[in-house]
Amino acid sequence: QVQLAESGGGLVQPGGSLRLSCEASGSIFSPNTMGWYRQVPGKQRELVATITTYGTTNYQDSVKGRFTISRDKAENTVYLQMNSLQPEDTAVYLCNFRWRVVQYWGKGTLVTVSS
User: Fold this and answer.
1) Which of 41, 66, 103, 113 has the fewest CB atoms within 10 Å of its CB?
2) pLDDT at 93
């Protein structure tokens, strides 16, 4: 089992920044992929960004150039730096850990972009 603890969500004005953190604990096997997804009520959950143990990243097109994912392997923690936030970025952001075909989800942290 892997437990994921997210933090860093909140309310921010358009154009502002937030940094999300997610710490994984438990049975951590490598190599693995950690990442962030987001979900808006009534819509499908969508990938935001992922990063592998080796540092390979993948981003949704709409966040490229604005969001940066990184990880501290020693701490099993993944970060999502979000800049130039827009109202359409408003969602619950969920941390994901994946090893082979097994994956775990965090409970989510709410990000609200509004003036």
Assistant:
1) 41
2) 98
